[in-house]
Amino acid sequence: MPATLSIAMIARNEEKNLPRTLSSVRWADEIVIVDSGSVDRTPEIAREFGARHSFNRDFRGHPEQKTIAIGKCTKDWILLLDADEVVSPELAKEIQETIQNPQYEAYWVPRLNLFMDRWIRHGGFYPDHKLRLFRRGSAVMETGVGPHGTPQFEGPKGTLKADLIHYAYPDFELYLSHMNDYSSENIYALVKRGKGKSLGAFLWLGVLNPVMTFVKNYFFRLGFLDGTQGLIYHLNHSVYIHWKYAKAWYAQKPKEVEP
Which CATH architecture has domain 5-169? Predict the structure, then answer.
C-alpha cells in the first residue's frame, strides 16, 4: 500500500496564516492541529479544511505542545509544520515521492524565512534546515529547552532540496513581540542549566556573545547582502540573545526590594 502522511501543527489565533498554510497541504492524508486557546476563527478554519482540531489550553511550551500533536497523528509519516509555514509545490512533490521510496527514516527540510518584506538568504539563516519529515514513531521532540526544541532522531538523516516557505515576520512589530515571548519562554531552560547566573557569565553570554554573533553573521556570513532588512534582522537577533540572558540573570538574582 502507498505510504500515508500526517501534518502535525500547533496553533493559537492563527486565522490570518492558517488558510494559506492548509491550502498548501490539502493533498496530505491527515491534518492534526492542537490549539492552545484560540479566540478567533482558527477552529472553524481548521475544520473547513478537514483538519482534526483539538484544544489543549495547558500550554507548557512549544515543544511540549508539538509532542501532543505528533502523538495524535495516525499515518505512516509525519510532517511537522508551523501555522505560518507553507509547503511549496516543489516541496509537496518531493515529500510525496520521498515517502513512497524512502532512503532514511527522517529528513531535514530547507526553510526560507521572510523578514519584513525581504526573504533572508544570507547571514547563516538560509538554508535554515529543520528536521520536519520523519516516519511516525521514529523521532521525539526535544523538550525543556525553550521555544525552539526540535524533533530528535539518532540515525542517519536525509536532506530534501525544495524550500519550506516561512512567513515568519512580515512586519517589525510582530518580530519584536515574538522575540519578547521567546526570550521569556527560554527563562526556565536557562535557569535550570544555571546559564548567566553570575555577573561574569552574563557579561560573556548576554553581552559579548550577542556582539560576536552579529559580527559573524552580518560580516563573515554575508548578512549585509540582504540589505537594510538584513542589518535590522541581525542587529535585533543579537538583541534577542541579550534579552534571554538578561531575563535569565534577573530571574536568578536575589531580589532587593528595600529602598
Answer: Alpha-Beta Complex (3.90)
Can you state the angle between helices 227-252 and 172-185, rounded to 10 degrees? Answer: 30
Element (H, E) at 54: strand 52-55
* Interval 8-33: pLDDT, tens: 999 999 999 999 999 999 999 999 99
CA distances from 182 to 58, 104, 147, 210, 240 (A): 17, 32, 6, 16, 9
Within 10 Å of residue 210's Cβ, how many Cβ atoms? 20
Q: Measure the CA–CA gap between 69 and 212, rounded to whole angstroms.
A: 37
* Lookup: cell for 96: 510525496
Exposure on the CB side of residue 144, measured as CA atoms within 13 A: 4
Q: Residue 220 burial (CB < 10 Å; 0-12/13-18/19+)?
A: exposed
**What does the pLDDT look like over 146-170, one tens digit per residue?**
777 889 999 999 999 999 999 999 9
Every domain of the chain and the residues it spans: 5-169, 172-252
Asked whether the whole model's pTM tops 0.90, one would answer yes
